[in-house]
Amino acid sequence: MADPIGWEWLDGTAAAPTSGADDPSPSFARCFAGTDGARVLATLKAMTLERALGPDASDAALRHLEGQRQLVAAILALTARGQTR
Fold first, then answer.
1. Nearest Cα to 53, choosing from 39, 43, 63, 42?
2. Which pLDDT does position 17 carry in this prediction?
3. Where is each Bbp19-like phage domain found (predicted)?
4. Which pairs with CB-CB distance under 8 Å and at least 24 residues apart come from 4-12?
5. How far apart are CA 33 and CA 23, in angstroms?
6. Backbone angles phi, psi at 59, to 5 degrees
7. What angle do the packed helices 34-47 and 59-83 form, to 10 degrees?
8. Where are the domains of the chain?
9. H helices of 1-85, where?
């Protein structure tokens, strides 16, 4: 990591490129291909990304939903990346 005196440390580290047998994105694309896969992804999005909690939601509920959203977003990203390969 860069010296924390400058702003470069905000850039973080570059993700290692995944390719070949180590890349799970083609598997995700195959898993969610077709009408059943689209239905599952739509259900996951409705349960997480398109869901809003009320103002009385606890901190634990908000954190739990945010974790679910992160997982669904990762699944969607891997599926989309696998479809382009």
1. 63
2. 57
3. 28-77
4. none
5. 17
6. -60, -40
7. 150
8. 23-83
9. 25-31, 34-47, 59-83
